[in-house]
Design goal:
Elements (H helix, E strand, L loop, with lengths): L2 H11 L3 H11 L7 H15 L5 H13 L6 H9 L3
């Protein structure tokens, strides 16, 4: 992808694309059956998005991914973070 595309995304979202790409790279070999790994990903996404995730919401997301077998992807995490309690 070209640099112009990333600059437009950064401008519209306020999210640094380098952070997103670094996170994506770290997810490739991660063990998503491990609660600590999943919690770390949730916290990193929360930090990148500048959107705090309350402990109870973090727990729901972790349960959904680790115990219920949901796939971990940016869209599903973002939707969970943005859901109202």
């Amino acid at each position: 992808m070209d640099n112009h595309f990333f600059k437009n995304v950064e401008k519209k979202t306020g999210v640094n694309m380098k952070d997103i790409l670094d996170l994506a790279g770290s997810l490739q070999n991660a063990n998503f059956k491990d609660e600590n790994t999943v919690r770390g990903v949730i916290r990193k996404v929360s930090q990148i998005a500048n959107k705090p995730v309350p402990k109870d919401m973090e727990e729901k997301i972790v349960q959904s991914i680790v115990k219920d077998g949901k796939n971990l992807d940016f869209n599903s995490i973002a939707k969970m973070i943005n859901q109202k309690k």
